[in-house]
Design a protein that fits this description.
The structure holds two protein chains of two kinds. Chain A is of the alpha+beta class. Chain A has two domains: 40 residues, Winged helix-like DNA-binding domain superfamily/Winged helix DNA-binding domain (Arc Repressor Mutant, subunit A, Orthogonal Bundle); 90 residues, 2-Layer Sandwich (Alpha-Beta Plaits). In chain A, strand 5 and strand 6 form a beta hairpin. The longest helix of chain A has 13 residues. Chain B has two domains: 130 residues, Aspartate Aminotransferase, domain 1 (Alpha-Beta Complex), CATH 3.90.1150; 219 residues, Type I PLP-dependent aspartate aminotransferase-like (Major domain) (Aspartate Aminotransferase, domain 2, 3-Layer(aba) Sandwich). In chain B, strands 4-10-9-8-7-5-6 form a seven-stranded mixed sheet, sandwiched between helices. The N and C termini of chain B lie far apart (45 Å). Chain B is α/β, with parallel strands linked by helices. In chain B, a hairpin with a 2-residue loop joins strand 1 and strand 2. Classes of the chains: A alpha+beta, B alpha/beta. Chains A and B meet through helix 2 of A and helix 2 and helix 11 of B.
């Protein structure tokens, strides 16, 4: 694997690795690692460093809904225009154009079912190009961003094995 | 010893097999007992992956159990798996038909079978050391006279080292590369050099290539892939290390027909076949396991780079080419490997394996397995450094 891609993969998995550690792991110069990371940051390849949080465990009530959105396209308004309009709401966590029965998958984050329902009714469904929406409230997350959120795989190995 | 009396008759024969009695108890055992009951020990003593069997392999095995696939297989193993292995081993330079492949219950069984199939009582087996702990005892049990060949301090094996044994009637040489405990492996050029010596000695090679997939500096090349060497070589390999399937117990042998038939003769009586569930998992590993293998391999490589660099601030360490071990020389502390390992465990709660477990010439070394998370590795090496500074 080339170093640039490997650095991205390492940071994607653990953004708190510092450049000295990465340099040691990949057996390259620390300055080189810093240069590569800075370039990725400047180019917008690395967008942000975030933590993945199990909010349920933290005891914080977060409500998420996944909304299937079907739209009517016109000469004036294409997918990009509609998506941008939806994406700018701070309540909207993710917007994805998908294949299948509907066009956009929109993830909305709020404090309660009611708040999210009203948000969709007032802000998403009322967009002229939106034909209809189906809302799925999220009940439990088992895996997020490649991280398993349940107990798994404890180390059962013997302490010494030849 | 007091003789037992049965039915009034003295049992005048030896009560146990002399060769078994002659075996030295494992040096690792004592260490194992030292660890029991100690909490928060970071163990670099574990010679197996810290990854579980990749899920898609586990899932395939579970499915096979649901379908009720639980019977014996042929003594040789599943035909589809043998075919997949013969195809797979081309990447290590070996062109073999499935008829030259059979499935064993781990490489451990393969070692035993190979030695028992080849050795007559009193014949000599050459074991370059340090090396995996099983060769010497199993060769001894097979009736061989074992000759240890120390390879320290660079752990390389040369033509000259080997041809010294010309005329001494060596029947077989035990190779293990990448090596447990040193991580040192053989480049194709070195494999060729050893092959030349093997031809001079006119003996067999038992080539344990279990860490072949975990090579970091160059691609693994099998002894059996060299012109004319297939007929002299028993290749042993398996799924334990590369595919993290240790507890499944599934390995294989690639050997010329005559040796393979002899090994299967023993295997059919002593083992019958390798566990069918494990064989199904192994087949899935070869079909769809590449990505997981590469993920684990690159993780080990990063740990090696990190760990060896840090260790080199404290000790002399030969750069491992593969496997997941580093074998530092601890003599700068004035302690033997065993003394150092004991002190490290008792004072710093880090477990390593004393080097003499892998042969007399390893007595000034310890084996550190980096099959633990980077976080633990970091703490372990810091504690080692603290200990060395306090001595």
């Amino acid at each position: 694997m080339n170093h640039e891609i490997e650095i991205l993969r390492l940071l994607e998995n653990n953004s708190r690795l510092d450049s000295a550690e990465i340099a040691e792991m990949l057996n390259v110069d620390r300055g080189e690692v810093e240069r590569i990371i800075r370039k990725f940051e400047d180019d917008g390849v690395i967008l942000r460093y975030k933590a993945i949080i199990d909010w349920e465990k933290a005891g914080v009530e977060e409500v998420y809904a996944i909304i299937d959105v079907r739209v009517n396209l016109t000469r004036e308004k294409g997918y990009d225009d509609i998506a941008k309009r939806i994406a700018k709401f701070p309540e909207v966590h993710a917007v994805r154009l998908v294949s299948g029965d509907y066009d956009f998958q929109v993830v909305v984050k709020g404090k309660s079912l009611k708040e999210i329902s009203f948000f969709i009714a007032e802000k998403i469904s009322t967009i002229p190009e939106v034909r209809d929406t189906v809302t799925h409230f999220l009940l439990r997350t088992y895996k997020e961003e490649g991280v398993i959120l349940f107990e798994d795989d404890e180390d059962r190995r013997l302490a010494i094995v030849p | 010893m007091r003789m037992m009396r049965t039915g009034g008759l003295q049992l005048s024969r030896d009560r146990l097999n002399i060769r078994v009695l002659e075996l030295k108890p494992s040096g690792i055992r004592r260490f194992f007992e030292l660890i029991i009951g100690r909490e928060d020990v970071i163990s670099l003593g574990v010679g197996e992956p810290d990854f579980s069997v990749p899920w898609r392999i586990r899932e395939e095995m579970i499915y096979s159990l649901e379908k009720g696939i639980t019977s014996y297989t042929s003594n040789y193993g599943l035909m589809e798996l043998r075919e997949a292995i013969s195809e797979y081993y081309r990447k290590f330079g070996v062109e073999a038909s499935h008829e030259n492949v059979f499935i064993t219950t781990g490489v451990s069984e393969g070692i035993d079978l190979a030695l028992r199939a080849i050795i007559n009582p009193g014949e000599k087996v050459l074991v370059p050391e340090p090396t995996y702990v099983s060769y010497q005892p199993l060769a001894h049990l097979a009736g061989a006279d074992v000759i240890s060949l120390p390879t320290d301090p660079d752990f390389r094996l040369s033509y000259d080292d080997l041809v010294k044994y010309r005329g001494q009637n060596i029947k077989a040489i035990m190779l293990n590369y990448p090596n447990n405990p040193t991580g040192v492996s053989l480049k194709k050029r070195e494999v060729e050099e050893i092959a030349d010596a093997v031809n001079e000695l006119d003996c067999f090679v038992i080539s344990d290539e279990i860490y072949g997939e975990l090579s970091y500096n160059f691609r693994h090349f099998s002894m059996a892939g060299l012109e004319g060497m297939f007929e002299r070589t028993v290749v042993l390999n398996g799924f334990s290390k590369g595919f993290a399937m240790t507890g499944m117990r599934v390995g294989y042998v690639i050997a010329p027909e005559e040796i393979l038939d002899a090994m299967v003769k023993i295997h059919q009586y002593s083992m019958l076949c390798a566990p069918v569930t494990a064989q199904i998992g192994a087949l899935e590993a070869l079909k769809n396991g590449d990505e997981e293998l590469e993920r684990m391999r690159s993780e080990y490589m990063r740990r090696r780079n990190f760990f060896v660099r840090r260790l080199r601030d404290i000790f002399d360490v030969v750069m491992p080419d593969g496997a997941f071990y580093a074998f530092p020389n601890v003599s700068s502390t004035g302690l033997t490997g065993e003394e150092f390992a004991e002190k490290l465990l008792l004072e710093k709660d880090v477990a390593v394996v004393p080097g003499d477990a892998f042969g007399e010439c390893g007595k000034n070394y310890v084996r550190c397995a980096y099959a633990v998370s980077m976080e633990k590795l970091k703490i372990a090496v810091e504690r080692m450094e603290e200990l060395v500074n306090s001595i």
